[in-house]
Write a structure and sequence with these properties.
The protein has a domain of 242 residues. Helix content is 75%, strand content 0%. The radius of gyration is 24 Å and the shape is globular.
Length: 485
């Protein structure tokens, strides 16, 4: 049996839906979400369920049974299980760290040290460094990000801008860390060496971060010392010091998270340790009872200092307060499971792949399909896996090294993730930082500058590596001889 005939048989066995049907599902999803979020105010959970219904109808018209669709939904839920557990644990961390005074200590020192004009640049750099160390944008955003939101609010900087800087820094570090699950996944899917992949990403995220920092600096000039409400800062500092014990010892919990990440302790146990460390510190340093601490971990911390500004800032966290995001994650990935197991996105990619004629078109297609997958399936992991496996033959046909594919997958799939309001990362950042995704999107500069830089490189050829370009790779000698001639 020839390869072409075998491919046709495989596609037929998959019961691929029609291209028109798949496009209807995608257009419905984007349109319904846009109308729900921006116009009618319909909860996106309900809108996503309706999108799942539309996808189910299209799949069943294509020959899939309800049992197969139910298996697809359960598959999506299984993908969500570990991230949702992490999300709930981070809710407990936020509650216990506020109860312990850890968040208050970071805010207290930050308000004294940070200049308003440099705050946005500092926030992006601090979260970038922390995320490289921990390998997790979620851990960084859910811990240090919460404190930075407090500092930004105290300095009078609009919270969407602060959240944008936190998201940019956190996801830069997530991309550049060898501890990151998405970084390892992209390298594995593209069959690239992990450290070759990370070094290759410097060409796109490095300039993008620099451009982002310049923009944050320019925006920060609007918030110089003359715009700061010093009376509010003084009252905030006084309220924190009068109601909580503040001191360097309370910085141990975040330091412990970084140390455990460096020691490669798995995410879930390290976060549980961080949560209970905060609980112990709350009883030792703040005199909280066991009931107070466990309530803060489960329901969130409730601040009652009498100063409304501080009380609004510190009343947050808890497992139960994360359940809105958890339920959204399960619904979104149920929809994504249907899209994956009924091969809907393969239909789109099968239409696109034969049209790719050059490197620029291939990079642009990779980034675009990663975007589409992330918006359609609410999962950055699927946005790496599906386009990566489907487009790999095109990279081989153009003799591009695997690290080009892995970089493009991250430039699109990983960095669009926090911009999807119903996606896991977007919903998480909203839940942790208290800023709606649609409000911080315009200020998460790194997340849409990097894909643009990546596409420009594709069309100009800058930093694109082909077979034989790297010493030690097969074909290097032939390539060197060709270039010499």
């Amino acid at each position: 049996m020839s390869n072409d005939v075998k491919k046709d048989v495989d596609l037929e066995d998959k019961k691929l839906p029609s291209f028109g049907g798949v496009m209807f599902v995608i257009i419905y999803l984007v349109a319904a979400m846009g109308v729900s979020v921006l116009w009618l105010g319909i909860p996106i959970h309900v809108t996503l369920i309706s999108a799942s219904l539309v996808a189910t109808i299209v799949a069943m018209r294509s020959g899939y049974t309800w049992d197969e669709i139910e298996d697809a939904i359960l598959h999506g839920c299984s993908i969500a299980m570990a991230p949702m557990l992490i999300l709930m644990i981070i809710g407990a961390i936020i509650g216990s760290w506020i109860a312990s005074g850890t968040i208050q200590t970071i805010i207290y020192y930050g308000l004294q040290i940070m200049s308003p004009g440099w705050f946005l640049v500092s926030a992006a750099l601090i979260t970038a460094i922390t995320s490289v160390a921990t390998g997790s944008a979620w851990t960084t955003g859910g811990t240090l990000g919460v404190a930075l939101i407090g500092i930004g609010k105290g300095l009078g900087i609009p919270l969407p801008i602060v959240a944008g800087a936190i998201v940019s820094g956190s996801f830069f570090g997530d991309k550049m860390s060898p501890l990151s699950d998405s970084t390892n996944l992209a390298a594995a899917v593209a069959e690239a060496d992990l450290f070759d992949h990370i070094k290759h990403m410097i060409y796109t995220v490095g300039p993008s971060l620099l451009i982002s920092l310049i923009i944050y600096f320019i925006i920060g000039l609007r918030f110089g010392e003359g715009t700061v409400n010093t009376a509010q800062i003084d009252q905030t500092l006084a309220t924190l010091s009068n109601n909580f014990q503040i001191g360097p010892m309370l910085l141990i919990p975040p330091a412990l998270v970084i140390v455990m990440a460096i020691k490669k302790v798995p995410a879930i146990p390290s976060l549980i340790i961080a949560a209970f460390t905060g609980a112990i510190f709350a009883m030792i340093f703040q005199g909280a009872s066991l009931a107070d601490v466990t309530n803060a971990m489960n329901y969130g911390y409730t601040s009652d200092t009498g100063f409304k500004f501080v009380d609004e800032l510190l009343t947050r966290g808890g497992i139960q307060n994360m359940m809105w995001t958890v339920s959204l994650g399960f619904i979104a990935l149920s929809f994504g499971g249907i899209m994956e197991k009924t091969h809907m996105l393969e239909v789109v990619l099968n239409k696109i792949e034969p049209l790719i004629k050059n490197t620029g078109g291939l990079i642009a297609t990779t980034v675009a399909t990663s975007y589409i997958t992330d918006f359609a399936m609410a999962s950055q992991y699927m946005a790496i896996i599906i386009p990566g496996r489907m487009l790999m033959p095109a990279y081989k046909r153009l003799k591009l090294l695997p690290r080009n594919l892995s970089r493009a997958l991250e430039d699109g799939g990983t960095l669009v993730a926090p911009l999807v309001p119903w996606g896991l990362s977007g919903a998480f950042m909203t839940g942790a930082l208290g800023v709606p995704t649609v409000e911080y999107i315009p200020f998460a500069f790194l997340c849409y500058i990097t894909p643009i830089v990546s596409i420009i490189y594709g069309f100009t050829g800058f930093s694109m590596l082909y077979e034989g370009d790297v010493e030690g790779d097969p074909g290097y000698a032939d390539r060197e001889e060709e270039m010499t001639a």
